[in-house]
Amino acid sequence: MTQQTTEVVTDVREYIVERFLFGQGGETLSNDASFLEEGIVDSTGVLEIVMFLEQRFGIKIKDDELVPDNLDSVSKVASFVVRKLK
User: Fold this and answer.
1) Nearest-CA neighbor of 12 among 43, 40, 44?
2) What is the full DSSP assignment across 5-28?
3) Is 34 in contact with 72 (CB distance < 8 Å)?
4) What region holds the Carrier domain (predicted)?
5) Could you give the domains of the chain?
6) Could you count the other beta carbons within 10 Å of the beta carbon of residue 55?
7) What is the spatial distance between Cα 25 and Cα 18, in angstroms, rounded to a whole number?
8) How far apart (Å, rounded) are the C-alpha atoms in residues 55 and 46?
9) Number of helices (H) and strands (E), helices first, in the chain?
10) Of 41, 48, 50, 54, whose CA–CA distance to 85 is shortest?
């Protein structure tokens, strides 16, 4: 994992734990846990994540990129962001 990827993972984890888990359970959240299957994030939450990513990383996320392969776990979000930053 590159340093950039590690930094993105850290930022995304912190956001998810604070915003959706209310600071609880972050130590047990797997980077590969599905936000939707685990009930961590609903469809409205996905839009909040998109706004966070756009603001934090200065990227623009298109409608056709709003898919689980890009946004359904810490790992998937981090990989997606790193791809967008290149």
Assistant:
1) 40
2) HHHHHHHHHHHHHHHHSTT-SGGG
3) yes
4) 7-85
5) 2-85 (1.10.1200.10)
6) 9
7) 10
8) 14
9) 4, 0
10) 54
pLDDT digits (tens, 9 = 90+) for 22-76: 988 888 999 999 999 999 999 899 999 999 999 999 999 999 999 999 999 999 9
What dihedral angle (degrees, nearest 10) is formed by the CA atoms of 47, 52, 53, 55?
Answer: 120
The single-letter code of the amino acid at 61 is: I
Q: Map tokens 């790992």 to a residue.
A: 75
d(CA 28, CA 47): 24
Tokens in use for 80? 């997606």
SS3 65: helix
